[in-house]
Amino acid sequence: MQxxxxxxxxxxxxxxxxxxxQARTASAALRRVDSGRKNAALEAIVARxxxxxxxxxxxxxxxxxxxxDNGLSEALLDRLALTPERIDAMIAGVRQVAALAxxxxxxxxxxxxxxxxxxxxxxxxxxVVGIIYESRPNVTVEAASLCxxxxxxCILRGGSEAAASNAAIADCIRLGLEDAGLPAAAVQVVATxxxxxxxxxxxxxxxxxxxxxxxxxxxxxxxxxxxxVPVIKHLDGICHVYIDAAADIDKAVAIADNxxxxxxxxxNTMETLLVHIDVxxxxxxxxxxxxxxxxxxxxGCSRTQEWIGDAVExxxxxxxxxxxxxxxxxxxxxxxxxxxxxxxxxxxxHTDAIVTENLTLARRFLAEVDSSSVIVNASTRFADxxxxxxxxxxxxxxxxxxxxxxxxxxxxxxxxxVVFGDGHVRG
Length: 427
Known about the structure:
Largest sheet: 7 strands, parallel
Mean pLDDT: 94
Low-confidence stretches: 1-9
Number of strands: 16
Shape: globular
Distance between the termini: 56 Å
CATH superfamily of the largest domain: Aldehyde Dehydrogenase, Chain A, domain 1
Structural class: alpha/beta
Number of domains: 2
Order of helices and strands: HHHHHEEEHEHEHEHEHEHEHEEHEHEEEE
Number of helices: 14
Strand order of the largest sheet: 10-9-11-8-7-12-13
């Protein structure tokens, strides 16, 4: 792949146009590729990744050293690192995608009409998918494998901090595609770190059918504001757990602990805990002891502070903040309706959970909370593609049109009507 360093905007624009044209051509070719050949290409990519372990490690060390020189935090350096175990995980991930059922070509709802024709809907690829992401180089492989299995060409633009790692991975993908006899342009990794490349990618509707941004809030906001291509996105993961008056207390404590402390940085981590006043005295002291031991800063309403004396007074901004850190907002509420109103007012339509043994309220929660994932008696941390049985995900969507929630293979397809006749003409 041609490398561009410190190119002028005009050069980057032309380069991106070329990538777009090549991707569109490759997209047409992928429509003729059956599942067996796509799986063979994925296995060829696996073989190339496995053989290139020393090169991948060397490229990653280059990125890590640059990151240290540029003052990246230890957390970001950890996300950037390609350890042998993470390379193993990348390879396992590609094989998992190869093992998934191929949605492309499936026809649903086929039935006869009074005229005698048969009408159904066939799953087809979106076409060309542009994916913009930061830090983690393993996203390059995840995105490429999902797009390939769903017969989509893709243009991948990783973060500048992972440029060398992404280039090394891109070489493996290109060689694997060539080994399998598929067009190398089916997966293209943008070779320039110039920010103008993002602006070009998100404004090429003639070549790109959908954009998926995976990264920080500023990146996603920029893409959402500037794109002329449809975007599958979520801006915030302000996730809630509501502990109802009819909750099993032991379940509630375990779920609220896991939802917050299993990992702090994912978008499906709980950021606000809502507790019904009738069980606050049973729940809050137990949870406070757990959070205190794990170093979680608790910010609560005035009633929360009655049971958790060291809780910081919560501000209005705390109810709409995605901390991605060991900080938790806690509110004691009066009833179920107030909990639902709080979630729909302050949440981000990502993932919200209720803990209750009242089936009627559980069903009302599922119906009334307007989020992409709504959970009963389980942690919000389950809201991802692997846990949902999708094998992997391209990202999480809080959109209401096309895809919502974790976006896997099916989310990378659309439907078109197909009609079967036998000489039928309309009278």
